[in-house]
Amino acid sequence: MSSAAVPASKEQDRADRPLHVAIIMDGNGRWAAARGLPRAEGHRRGVEALRRVVRASRELGVLYLTIFSFSSENWSRPASEIGDLFGLLKRFIRNDLATLHRDGVRVRIIGERVGLEPDICALLNEAEELTRDNTRLNLVVAFNYGSRQEIARAAQRLAREVAQGSRDPSSIDADTLGRSLDAPDIPDPDLIIRTSGEQRLSNFLMWQAAYSEFVFVPMHWPDFDKAALESAIAEYARRERRFGGLVAKTAS
Ligand code: IPE
Ligand code: IPE
Ligand code: MG
To answer: pTM, whole model, 2 decimals?
Structure first.
């Protein structure tokens, strides 16, 4: 069916809802500090918020949910905190993978795997393998992820093809580079949410965010819930996306 045949209300409905929501889950440490609790407790409560938001995303018809779980720059934190964060990711996958699979969630991982501990790599692979045929929601976990590093990896892949003689340098354009990123089949995020009041990307999806809408919310990540997601989506629906043109357009 051509888009002209879609009734106007349906067309509007589709434009209002983001297909891909990406979240910078920030403020766990400040949430804990405000309550006199250790930062680790903030991270633990952050995982509970993540469970709520995965469920809410399915209920709200989001097809792709990308979450920033550990950045390339988070290695500069104390070893004990890195241990807490890695421990939580491992526990999240061990405890929740069966439920995610039952609920039709496909788990994808973006970020650098080289140099990660073998047990964490094995868990990431297991999550991707088990859920590869699921279609209800794509949960994209940005782990050990940095956008500059991802773009550099894409440049390396292309440079290798040039060096092997299988690619002409003049064939490399924005599309080619985009297709060499970690998850080329995933559409760009329509909406990027950052909690905790900070208003920056911190090396998250810089290439993919070229035409994303940004919503910054003051609450810390452990307090985020379905109502907060709904209100960010409502804010998104009020935006006019033009993609460089003169009239509002939908992403797809
Ligand atoms: C987000 O919370 C979790 C990660 C970055 C892994 P923070 O740990 O950054 O919390 P704040 O920003 O210090 O409050
Ligand atoms: C971004 O948050 C990374 C994650 C949410 C995983 P940070 O807390 O690390 O970002 P900065 O340091 O405040 O920019
Ligand atoms: Mg932070």
So the answer is: 0.94
